[in-house]
Amino acid sequence: MAKGDAAFVGSIPATYERLLVPLIFAEPARRLASAVLATAPRDILETCAGTGVLTRQLVAAGDAYVTATDLNAPMLRTALQLCRSDHVTWQVADALELPFGARSFDAVACQFGAMFFPDKPRGFAESLRVLRPGGTFCCTVWDRIEASPSWRIVDDAVNAAAGEVPVQFLRRVPYAYFDPDQVRQHLRIAGFDDIAVETLSATSRSTPEETAEAICHGTPLRMALAAHPTLGIERATEVAAHALREEYGDGVFDAPIGWLQVVARKS
Ligand SMILES: C[S@@+](CC[C@H](N)C(=O)[O-])C[C@H]1O[C@@H](n2cnc3c(N)ncnc32)[C@H](O)[C@@H]1O
Hints:
This protein is of the alpha/beta class.
């Protein structure tokens, strides 16, 4: 992990919620919420809650009380505007140093956050610590970038335009933690002993321009592009949209997205 890799700040939260959530996070949230609520938890800790797409699903579908946490206050401020339920508490917290006592929750949920942990076993061990015996940890991580081809196309196009200074954020961070055996191993090191990993997919629907804006403006890739010596955010967005039009044509297109959903229990 490099400085800024987990910086979901500035204009990112608003773009993230407007474009990325409907594009790639809403459907995984629906499925992850089902997995979490299947265990009938009374209280749920959510780590890496972001703008709250999973939180809203958890609250809408059940009676559970959710403590929704994230490293970045700006993400939670956007989340709060969209969900003021008395079943949710929002709190800034690092998933690797949770400010909660041992055995405090029936379930811990983490949607697409573990890829950002600088030390994955430690992050998982923190979730294990705050779970009650018999509690469940549910999380998702992205499958390899080839399982989400529109993202692979954008990454390739941006890097082709980046010249001698590659922009590696997507393959280095969000799309780097896709090996089910590695995820299982990290969970076992953390102390989980009943681990199921499922490979899931769905279809995202968008236009080339929206997808390009979502990826280049709505993630910490934005910072890498802004710091690039020759490319810049706007040029990268144009290059990305052009590559998507070449592949999918003008207007709305459907593209697959792929991810891993993990359920692990504390004995
Ligand atoms: C890709 S977003 C996912 C957000 C949300 N779960 C969703 O599905 O839309 C990753 C989130 O992880 C948060 N994050 C990164 N590192 C973290 C850490 N160490 N502890 C807590 N949150 C972290 C970021 O601030 C960001 O909101």
